[in-house]
Amino acid sequence: MNDLRDKYLTAIAGARDEAALEDLRVQAVGKKGEISLQMRELGRMTPEERQVAGPLLNALKDEINSALAARKAALSDAALDERLRSEWLDVTLPARPRRTGTIHPVSQVTEEVTAIFADMGFAVAEGPQIESDWYNFDALNIPGHHPARAEMDTFYTHRATGDERPPHVLRTHTSPVQIRAMQAQGAPLRVIAPGRVYRADYDQTHTPMFHQVEGLAIDRDISMANLKWVLEEFVKAFFEVDNVDLRFRASHFPFTEPSAEVDIRCSWEGGTLKVGEGDDWLEILGSGMVHPHVLKAGNIDPNEWQGFAFGMGIDRIAMLKYGIPDLRAFFDSDLRWLRHYGFTALDVPTLHGGLSR
Ligand code: PHE
């Protein structure tokens, strides 16, 4: 009996896993196990022998069962410790940066522009990107034969047949929103209209889809002086500087009279674009006093009301502010570019909190 005891207790202590323990249990105390067979022998013993052997065998069986249970518990503790060690996870580590999306510079700049003009009392107006020929051209004093139609590199929704003009275009500018806003709200009026516009043009500073923001202020005594002040205030706030060199150039648009184009001083030296220094100028907007025909198309009486309007390239001013030299890259969806030039989603531009930080 001592041999049996030594044999099993040693084997149990050395068992590597639960399967080995189970084998030992079957061998020792299973139905046909060595100890069970010994117990069957009890029946053939004399009562005296049985009284000695019986309790001893029962005690041995108990001892082996508890050794099995103890070893089993030790093995599962060790397995748990090993799992806790290998599956350890530091939940305080920061999120993986490559999974963080960014705000596109065009969205960022649109928010910045909106915040600045909202502070000057301009509300945001909208219009469709697929626009009728009338809103995009006629209502803006650009009749069918006007050369500006050709200059706009317009995308038409279908080819013209005969004398008939196609009824719809991809809007070539945000100016049709001027008409829609006048019709919807009447005078006095103060709105901006940011959005997508389309022209068949492609080089370092032009893409077939780009963004403009239209501005329109109508009241009884609005003048060019108000236009100049608003644009200067805007440019200073947008570029977050006290002084920016602006150049007002006399120009012509069918929908404004008089008209001015506005350039901003910049340098392209070494392939990097810097605003406020250098001898180059980048055109950022067209502007002027709203033409009486345009007011009429918007159902506003030109004898009672007048106003200024401007249309500015959002992508252009984004390039200038954030030193992005090639406009085409804006719409390539290159993740490396987006990570480099993108903005943190939670940094919402406000005048009080800072536009770009
Ligand atoms: N619509 C003009 C353009 O796209 C810009 C403009 C808007 C000019 C309003 C004057 C007034 O070039």
TrEMBL record:
Source taxon at top rank: Bacteria
Documented EC number(s): 6.1.1.20
Aminoacyl-transfer RNA synthetases class-II family profile domain location: 107-349
InterPro entries the record matches: aa-tRNA-synth_II, aa-tRNA-synth_II/BPL/LPL, Phe-tRNA-synth_IIc_asu, Phe-tRNA_ligase_II_N, Phe_tRNA_ligase_alpha1_bac, Phenylalanyl-tRNA_Synthase, tRNA-bd_arm
Cofactor binding note of this UniProt entry: Binds 2 magnesium ions per tetramer.
Cofactor(s) named in the record: Mg(2+)
Repeat listed as a keyword: no
UniProt binding sites for Mg(2+): 257
Listed GO biological process terms: phenylalanyl-tRNA aminoacylation
Major place of residence: cytoplasm
GO terms of molecular function: ATP binding; magnesium ion binding; phenylalanine-tRNA ligase activity; tRNA binding
GO cellular component assignments: cytoplasm
Keyword flag Ion transport: no
Pfam families to which the protein is assigned, alphabetical: Phe_tRNA-synt_N (PF02912), tRNA-synt_2d (PF01409)
Family note: Belongs to the class-II aminoacyl-tRNA synthetase family. Phe-tRNA synthetase alpha subunit type 1 subfamily.
PANTHER family: PHENYLALANINE--TRNA LIGASE, MITOCHONDRIAL, PHENYLALANYL-TRNA SYNTHETASE
Protein name stated in the entry: Phenylalanine--tRNA ligase alpha subunit
Species the sequence originates in: Roseovarius azorensis
Lineage, broadest ranks: Bacteria, Pseudomonadati, Pseudomonadota, Alphaproteobacteria, Rhodobacterales
